[in-house]
Design goal:
352 residues, alpha/beta, Rossmann fold, 2 domains, seven-stranded parallel β-sheet, 35% helix
Length: 352
């Protein structure tokens, strides 16, 4: 028998609390054990009710979701799914919340509210279930990492190269994992492409935020962008990204909006194209995430001569995508998150 997931809803709007309560309660495996109108009430109810998962409004008047998470996670780590608005400020706070320990987020509908609401509640139910399996214990006693630059020695930096590619895939928990990897990349690291499961509108914010933290330039990928040393390209939400070779260079092509392996962008689509057009000139990493998107693509990369690794279970928020990538044979070994950057740098250097 499936276990019942106990959820606490935190939102300053009584109407929203009621809608989320009804929406979550439609799933027999989810029980809403309580609601709270602000983080102060939520703090007491967390101790009292001991929920498995928290849904948290991004923007609240007395204390926003980020400030609450920064206080909560070091003392009482619990999987949190943010409920986000699509305003510019809502996107900014959502990205900060992911940095502060939130596992994932859902976006409130802005148009065709009736249809959008049903889709949002369906997504919320799914993400609450995923969040209930998340490992957030590493937040205990720690504060969110603030903006920093790479601590790796400049001697680790790679020579300018146009024919090497680093391909990274991630999903649940991936925003923090990606940051912790690429902020260690020296400024001249080989061109890097990343697929993080995230809806349109948030990947630009995510890219801009990473660009402030990294020695490499980070941007949301645009059709025709050249993959070059010193540049990290993030696949835009809602678009499939593929890598192609044009003469002596590699560039990205943005294509359809159909989901592949359940996602758009899909890690499988990106890695399949890397296998086809980059082959042995690539290295890959599979980071934390639910499901198996990317496992087949990474296997194709390995069969084409690429070297690939995956994040280990202990450091993964959700050990799904890396586990399947390793079990299928695409990833040659499992690596703790803190060692992935150096492992990729070593692998790409071996290919020179």
């Amino acid at each position: 028998m499936a276990r019942i997931i106990r959820v606490l809803i935190v939102d300053d709007s009584a109407l929203v609390r009621n809608i989320l309560n009804q929406g979550l309660s439609m799933d027999p495996n989810i029980e809403v054990v309580g609601t709270a109108s602000d983080p102060y009430i939520a703090r007491d109810k967390i101790v009292q009710l001991q929920p498995d998962v928290l849904t948290l409004d991004v923007e609240m008047p007395r204390m926003d979701g980020v400030a609450f998470l920064r206080k909560l996670m070091p003392q009482y780590p619990i999987p949190v799914v943010m409920v986000s608005s699509l305003t510019q400020r809502g996107k900014q706070i959502t990205m900060e919340a992911l940095d502060a320990g939130a596992v994932d987020f859902v976006a409130k509908p802005t148009s065709n509210v009736a249809a959008g609401l049903n889709a949002m509640l369906m997504e919320l139910r799914s993400k609450v279930k995923i969040a209930s399996t998340a490992n957030v214990s590493h937040w205990k006693g720690k504060r969110p990492i603030q903006a920093s630059k790479s601590s790796l020695s400049a001697s680790t930096a790679l020579a300018e190269s146009t024919d090497k590619v680093i391909a990274i895939g991630a999903s649940t928990g991936g925003t923090e994992a990606i940051r912790r990897v690429i902020e260690k990349f020296p400024a001249t690291t080989a061109g890097t492409i990343i697929v993080q499961h995230m809806p349109g509108g948030f990947t630009k914010m995510f890219s801009d935020r990473l660009n402030q933290l990294c020695q490499m330039q980070v941007k949301e990928a645009e059709h025709g962008d050249r993959i070059r040393a010193g540049l990290i390209l993030i696949a835009p939400g809602g678009k499939q990204l593929e890598v192609v070779r044009t003469g002596g260079f590699y560039e990205v092509r943005l294509g359809g909006e159909e989901k592949v392996s359940g996602h758009c962008p899909s890690v499988d689509v990106m890695m399949d194209s890397v296998a086809k057009h980059v082959g042995a000139n690539a290295v890959g990493a599979m980071l934390t995430g639910m499901g198996q998107d990317g496992a087949n693509g990474m296997l194709a990369m390995k069969q084409a001569g690429a070297r690939c690794i995956a994040q280990d279970q202990a450091s993964s928020v959700v050990f799904g995508m890396p586990k399947v990538a390793f079990e299928k044979g695409g990833a040659e070994r499992l690596v703790p998150l803190e060692n992935i950057a150096q492992s990729l740098l070593n692998l790409i250097t071996e290919k020179k």
